[in-house]
Write a structure and sequence with these properties.
The protein is α+β, with helices and mostly antiparallel strands. It has 15 helices and eight strands. The strands form three sheets. The protein has a four-stranded antiparallel beta sheet, with helices on both faces. Helix 7 runs antiparallel to helix 8 and helix 12 crosses helix 13. The longest helix is centred in the first third of the chain and has 36 residues. The N and C termini lie far apart (95 Å).
């Protein structure tokens, strides 16, 4: 009986989280609304199962709705906060709150119908009691979600392991919710507090399983790192700091003129990308690109023309390389392209594609045609650190310039 109950519970968890985490993983493609709709739909199953179905798992008698679905729902909402932000997680929280209040209001109206309408007196009493219980449960859910986010942020400040932050947060909120809910049952309906024991044990066990699953998902599927907490003076406004911070951080890493990443971004991202490639024994190449005779362009046509050329070059590079190949402005007219998983021959092909694209592309409103030089280096042959690769690529770029003096070509004026 014990093995059967445990196997059944684990199967339910596997189905529940297997589907929900799949929807969350592909939220960029399907839309986060798909995940939220499924989560809210399961809330109705959770409520129904919580009051109608109890199963025996060894010495415990638990409700799948209360123990498995409710516990899982809370931790899924925590997952949304961890990977998205309070801006996003408040949507299902408010939605569940308002939805439950609407249902409760309808139930109260139905319970007020006169008995002549065909409603059995006992049914009226049951509906009325369920309505007030639903209001209390809805209020607790709202408090649970806010408290859960605040507690998680507080725990992050101690730099605890991610799985510990998730488990402590989930277990604490589940204990609070369980005690508060069963206290209401005891006070208003005379349900003995001893009946709460099995459910609480079941929820803590479920919380441990869900925490391990979420840790594995975040670690292997989304590579999450625990962040540092922040001031919580205004819960749902202040907690959006992460979204705002990330937007400002992205903006601070962009070159204002060209839209390429800047040296700050390179110092944070470049060494890590090279190090990861070396560690995983994957190929890694870099290209250094600059505009031939750029000073002459500025001198003869003005700096506005030079600025247009820089923007045009970055657009050209981005259109030629892969979306996963970051482009950085090193300074002046010199740019760096990182090519993860690109062997030397692949990098050589990309470099030639860039030269060809520059030769054939016509810049709008420009009296000259773009010519570029490209230097290439690959790890580990040319070095095992970003600085080594940059130096090797720079040397090859200037060696190429020495073989053919850089020049620009004027485009003949159109015949009248």
């Amino acid at each position: 009986m014990l093995l059967t109950g445990v196997a059944s519970s684990l199967a339910q968890i596997a189905i529940y989280y297997g589907v929900m985490l799949t929807l969350f993983r592909y939220r960029r493609m399907l839309g986060i609304g798909t995940f939220f709709c499924a989560l809210c739909a399961l809330t109705f199953a959770e409520t129904y199962l919580a009051i109608t179905v109890f199963v025996t798992v060894g010495p415990l008698s638990i409700s799948p709705g209360s123990v498995l679905l409710f516990s899982g729902k809370l931790l899924l909402l925590l997952l949304v906060y961890i990977r998205e932000d309070a801006e996003t997680v408040r949507q299902p929280i408010y939605g569940l709150l308002l939805g439950n209040l609407i249902i409760t209001a309808i139930v109260v109206v139905v319970s007020m119908q006169p008995q002549t309408s065909g409603i059995h007196p006992q049914a009226v009493t049951t509906i009325s009691e369920s309505a007030w219980l639903s209001i209390w449960g809805t209020f607790l859910l709202f408090v649970d979600c806010i408290a859960m986010i605040i507690l998680y942020e507080k725990l992050c400040r101690f730099r605890l392991p991610l799985v510990a932050c998730i488990w402590i947060t989930g277990a604490t909120i589940l204990i609070f919710d369980h005690i508060a809910f069963f206290s209401a049952l005891n006070i208003y309906f005379g349900v003995p507090l001893g009946a709460a024991r099995d459910g609480l044990i079941g929820k803590l066990v479920a919380c441990s399983i869900y925490s391990a699953i979420l840790w594995a998902y975040l670690h292997f599927m989304e590579h999450h790192e625990v962040g540092i907490g922040h001031d919580l003076r205004d819960v749902f406004v202040a907690l959006t700091y992460r979204q705002r911070f990330e937007a400002l951080d992205i903006e601070a890493k962009l070159d204002v003129l060209t839209g390429a990443r800047n040296r700050r971004a390179l110092s944070q991202e470049g060494p890590r990308l090279v190090r990861e490639a070396i560690t995983a024994n994957r190929p890694m190449s870099v290209l250094v690109v600059d505009i031939d005779a750029f000073k002459q362009v500025n001198d003869e046509f003005g700096h506005a023309a030079g600025d247009r050329a820089l923007k045009f070059l970055v657009d050209l590079v981005k259109a030629t390389v892969r979306d996963t190949d970051p482009v950085y402005r090193l300074g002046g007219d010199e740019f760096l392209v990182l090519l993860p998983d690109a062997a030397p021959k692949d990098a050589a092909r990309v470099g030639e594609d860039l030269r060809q694209a520059a030769r054939t592309a016509a810049m709008p409103e420009s009296p000259w045609s773009l010519r570029i030089s490209v230097g290439q280096a690959s790890a580990p042959d040319d070095g095992r650190a970003l600085d080594d690769l940059l130096e090797a690529a720079d040397q090859r770029l200037y060696a190429g310039k020495a073989r053919r003096r850089g020049h620009y070509q004027e485009i003949p004026a159109p015949a009248n």
